[in-house]
From TrEMBL, chain A:
Protein name, per record: Glucose/mannose transport system permease protein
Organism: Kribbella caucasensis
InterPro entries recorded: MetI-like, MetI-like_sf, UgpAE/MalFG_permease
Family per similarity comment: Belongs to the binding-protein-dependent transport system permease family.
Record-linked SUPFAM superfamilies: MetI-like
Segments traversing the membrane: 12-30, 73-95, 107-127, 165-188, 209-229, 270-291
Taxonomic lineage from the root: Bacteria, Bacillati, Actinomycetota, Actinomycetes, Propionibacteriales
Membrane topology: Multi-pass membrane protein
Localization in the cell: Cell membrane
Main location, first listed in the record: membrane
TrEMBL record, chain B:
Name assigned to this protein: Glucose/mannose transport system substrate-binding protein
Database matches in SUPFAM superfamilies: Periplasmic binding protein-like II
Keywords: Signal
Keyword Iron-sulfur: no
Signal peptide start-end: 1-23
C-alpha cells in the first residue's frame, strides 16, 4: 500500500494546489456561468431565479444583432489567421535565407507584440480615420499625399462586413505576424542541415526542397500557430473596443456583445453568450488537444 | 557613476511613493474610522467638471465640517468607464457613499437591483420639493418615490452654428429654421454652396440625440414623452415619417461620423468645415475653454423644438448599505442647497435645478438657459438617461450605429420599438 502511494503520491501532492485552483476558478466558474445562462436572471440583484431551460439561447439565435456578431467573428477569424500565417511565413522565409542584420529584423518584426492591444487599438483607430479627399487623416492622408486616392477607404466604418472586419484584422495581423515568424523560424532552424544537403545532392531544386522536404516538417508548428491564432481571434475584445467603441453594430463580435449585455445587468443573456463563445473555442481546441495527446502516446 | 546613484535613489523614491499610495487606499477601504469619510463616486475628473466638483466640495467642507470628503472619481467622458467600475462595486456589495447618475429612468436598474434608497423623506426635510420645479420632480419620480438629488440641469436640444459658413448660402445664422423641413432646405442650400457636409455629427450618443430631437420636433412634446412611457406607439406612421427625416439629415453629415467625438464635430463647425452641429449645452463651457469668441458662433433650440427644454441632470444617490450614511445625507443636502448649486454650476457651465437661483451670478449662455428652464416645456432625453434605462439606451445606440452604415428606416423603427419595450 505504502509502496504504491510512493509512486503516485508525491506527484499528486505537488499537483493538488493547481488542481484545486483550476477546479474552482476555471471549471467551477464555467459551471456557474452555464447555470446562470439557464435561468431568468435578467438583473444584477442576487437571489433565486427560475430556470428557463434553453430560452436564453433560443432568443440569442433569433436575434439579428447576435447573428451579426457571429458572422463578424467568422470573417475576422478567417482574415486574421490567413493574414498572420502569410506574413509570418513570408518573414520567416526571408530571414531563413540569411539576410544581413537578421537579428535587427527579427526584433523589428517582434516588437509590435510587446504593445498591449488596447494601446495599439487606440492608435490604429486614429490611423484608420474614414475621412477622404482633402479632409483625409491617418493612412488615408498618406494615400492622398502619394496621389493614391483610389486606395482611400472608410476602413471599419463602411457598409460591407468584409471590409469592416478586414480593417479590424489589420492591426491584429500587424501585432501577431512577428510571433508566427518566430515560431516558423524556430521550426526551420530545428530541421537538421543533413536533410537539406541530402536533398541538394539528389538534385532537388530550391522550390522542391521547400515544398517536399522543409514544409512538411513544419506542419506541427503550423497547426499550433493555427490554434493559437484561432483562439486569440475568437476572444479578441480590447482591440475592437478601442477602435470602434461599445455598441458599434458594424464591428461587434460576441465578446464585445457579452460585455455590453453584462453592463446592462442582463446576467443570464451575458452568460449564454459566454457559453456560446466557449463552445466555439472548444470546437477549435478540443480536436487539437486530442490530436496532440494521441501523438504523444504514439511516440511513447 | 553619480548619475546612476541619483537615478537609483529617485526610482526607489517613486516606488516607495507608489507603495504608500496603495497603503493609503487600503486604509480607507478597510474603513478604520471610515464613518466620517464620505466617498463620492463621479466621472468628473478634469476640466470644468472637476472645477464644479471642487466648488461643491468646498461648500461641503464648510457646511459639514464633521465629515471629510473622499474623491472616488473615474475619468472618462459621459461616465463610459465609471459606470463599469460602479457596476462591479455595486454587485460586489461594496457601494461608495454616494454615486453620480443621470436623473430619471437611468436609475431604474439600480432601483430594480435594490442598490439605491428612496430619499423622498430627505426632499421634505431639505425643502427640495418646494425648491425644484414641479415638472422636474415629475420626471424624477418613479412609482411615487424619488431616488436622487440633481446637482444641475443641462439642455440637450441645442444646435450650434457658424454664421460665417451660413452666410455663404445667405442664411441668417441668428434665427433657427422653423421646422426640420426648413432646416433640411437650408442644409440643401449649404451643400449647393459648396459645404460638403454642412451638419457635423459624431459617434454614438450624438447621432442618437439628432434622432431624438427630430422625433421631438415631428411628434411634439407630449407624443415624444409618450414614446418612453408607453402612451405613444413607436411603430406608428408619424414615427416612420420622423425617422425618414432623420435619414435625410444624415445625408448631410460628415463621412467620419463613426470615428470622431463631439468636440471634433464642434471643431468642424468652428473651423468652418461644417455649418451646424447638434449637441447639449456643455458646448458653451467648451467654447469658453477653447477661447472661441462669442461672435463666431450662434445657438438656438433644435429646429422645431422651440419652447421645449430637453433636459438631463446629474444627480447623487443614497446607495443601500453605503458607508457613512449620515455624512452622505449631509452631502446630499449641500448638493441640493442654493449655495451648493451655485458653487457647482457657475464653474461647470450648467444651470441650477432650483428655481430660486439668481441669473445674475451666471455667464451669458446660462442666463438664457435659466430663463428657458422656467418657461419652457420640460421633456426628457433617452441618450442622457432621463427617459431611458441603460439597457434601452444601449440597444438604441447599437441600432443607430447599424442605421448609420445602412439606413433602413423600417429596421431602425422596429429596433426602437423592441428596445423601448425591453427594460
Amino acid at each position: 500500500m505504502y509502496g504504491r502511494f510512493r509512486t503516485w503520491g508525491p506527484g499528486l501532492l505537488v499537483l493538488l494546489p493547481t488542481i484545486g485552483l483550476l477546479g474552482y476558478f476555471v471549471y467551477g466558474l464555467i459551471g456557474a456561468t452555464l447555470n446562470t445562462s439557464l435561468t431568468a436572471q435578467h438583473a444584477a440583484r442576487r437571489g433565486s431565479y427560475p430556470y428557463v431551460g434553453f430560452e436564453n439561447y433560443a432568443n440569442l439565435f433569433a436575434e439579428e444583432r447576435f447573428l451579426n456578431s457571429l458572422k463578424n467573428l467568422g470573417v475576422l477569424t478567417v482574415a486574421f489567421i490567413v493574414g498572420t500565417l502569410i506574413f509570418g511565413l513570408l518573414w520567416a522565409l526571408l530571414l531563413e535565407k540569411g539576410v544581413p542584420g537578421e537579428s535587427i529584423f527579427r526584433s523589428v518584426y517582434l516588437f509590435p507584440m510587446a504593445i498591449s492591444m488596447i494601446a495599439s487599438g487606440v492608435v490604429w483607430g486614429w490611423l484608420m480615420n474614414p475621412s477622404t479627399g482633402d479632409d483625409a487623416r491617418g493612412i488615408n492622408r498618406l494615400f492622398h499625399l502619394l496621389h493614391l486616392g483610389f486606395l482611400e477607404n472608410s476602413w471599419w466604418s463602411g457598409t460591407s462586413r468584409w471590409t469592416n472586419m478586414l480593417a479590424i484584422a489589420l492591426p491584429a495581423i500587424w501585432q501577431l505576424s512577428g510571433y508566427i515568424m518566430a515560431l516558423f523560424l524556430a521550426g526551420f532552424r530545428g530541421i537538421p542541415p543533413e536533410l537539406r544537403e541530402a536533398a541538394r545532392v539528389d538534385g532537388a531544386s530550391e522550390f522542391k526542397l521547400y515544398r517536399h522536404v522543409l514544409f512538411p516538417q513544419l506542419s506541427p508548428i503550423a497547426l499550433s500557430a493555427l490554434i493559437i491564432l484561432g483562439h486569440m481571434s475568437l476572444k479578441l475584445f480590447d482591440l475592437i473596443y478601442a477602435i470602434a467603441g461599445p455598441s458599434q453594430f458594424r464591428t461587434e463580435v460576441p465578446s464585445v456583445y457579452m460585455w455590453n449585455t453584462l453592463l446592462r445587468s442582463d446576467m443570464a443573456k451575458a452568460a449564454a453568450i459566454a457559453i456560446v463563445l466557449l463552445a466555439v473555442v472548444a470546437v477549435l481546441v478540443i480536436p487539437y488537444v486530442a490530436y496532440t495527446v494521441r501523438q504523444e502516446s504514439a511516440e511513447r | 557613476m553619480r548619475g546612476l546613484v541619483v537615478k537609483a535613489i529617485s526610482v526607489a523614491g517613486v516606488a516607495s511613493l507608489a507603495l504608500t499610495a496603495c497603503g493609503g487606499n487600503d486604509d480607507s477601504s478597510s474603513g478604520s474610522g471610515g464613518d466620517n469619510k464620505v466617498q463620492v463616486f463621479t466621472w468628473w475628473a478634469d476640466g470644468g467638471e472637476k472645477a464644479g466638483l471642487d466648488g461643491l466640495v468646498s461648500q461641503f467642507q464648510k457646511d459639514c465640517s464633521q465629515y471629510s470628503f473622499e474623491n472616488a472619481a473615474v475619468a472618462g467622458g459621459a461616465g463610459a468607464n465609471a459606470k463599469q467600475v460602479l457596476a462591479n462595486n455595486l454587485s460586489a456589495g461594496d457601494p461608495p457613499s454616494t454615486f453620480q447618475a443621470h436623473a430619471g429612468k437611468e436609475l431604474q436598474d439600480y432601483i430594480t437591483n435594490g442598490q439605491v434608497d428612496d430619499i423622498s423623506g430627505l426632499y421634505k426635510e431639505f425643502g427640495l420639493d418646494q425648491a425644484f420645479p414641479q415638472s422636474l420632480l415629475d420626471n424624477l419620480t418613479v412609482d411615487g418615490k424619488i431616488y436622487s438629488v440633481p446637482a444641475n440641469v443641462h439642455r440637450a436640444n441645442v444646435v450650434w452654428a457658424n454664421p460665417a459658413v451660413l452666410k455663404r448660402a445667405s442664411i441668417d445664422g441668428t434665427k433657427a429654421p422653423a421646422s426640420v423641413d426648413a432646416w433640411i432646405a437650408d442644409l440643401t442650400k449649404l451643400k449647393a454652396a459648396g459645404v460638403a457636409a454642412p451638419l457635423a455629427v459624431s459617434k454614438g450618443f450624438a447621432q442618437e440625440m439628432l434622432m431624438e430631437t427630430t422625433l421631438l420636433a415631428e411628434l411634439g412634446p407630449d407624443k415624444f414623452t409618450g414614446l418612453f412611457n408607453g402612451q405613444t406607439d413607436p411603430a406608428g406612421g408619424d414615427v416612420t415619417a420622423a425617422l425618414s427625416k432623420y435619414r435625410t439629415l444624415l445625408t448631410f453629415t460628415n463621412a467620419d461620423r463613426e470615428a470622431i467625438d463631439w468636440p471634433d464635430a464642434l471643431g468642424y463647425v468652428n473651423s468652418g468645415k461644417a455649418g451646424y452641429t447638434l449637441m447639449g449645452d456643455w458646448v458653451a463651457a467648451q467654447q469658453v475653454a477653447d477661447k472661441v469668441p462669442d461672435s463666431a458662433y450662434t445657438y438656438w433650440p433644435a429646429p422645431g423644438t422651440d419652447g421645449e427644454f430637453q433636459f438631463l441632470a446629474d444627480s447623487f444617490t443614497l446607495p443601500t448599505n453605503g458607508k457613512a450614511a449620515e455624512g452622505t445625507k449631509c452631502w446630499l443636502r449641500v448638493v441640493g442647497s442654493a449655495e451648493g448649486q451655485k458653487a457647482f454650476n457657475t464653474t461647470k457651465g450648467s444651470i441650477p435645478a432650483r428655481s430660486d437661483a439668481s441669473p445674475a451670478d451666471y455667464p451669458k449662455y446660462q442666463q438664457a438657459a435659466m430663463a428657458d428652464w422656467k418657461q419652457d416645456k420640460i421633456v426628457p432625453s433617452c441618450a442622457h438617461g432621463s427617459a431611458c434605462t441603460l439597457g434601452q439606451n444601449e440597444s438604441i445606440q447599437s441600432a443607430i450605429s447599424q442605421f448609420s452604415g445602412s439606413p433602413d428606416v423600417a429596421k431602425l423603427q422596429s429596433a426602437l420599438a423592441t428596445a423601448l419595450k425591453s427594460s
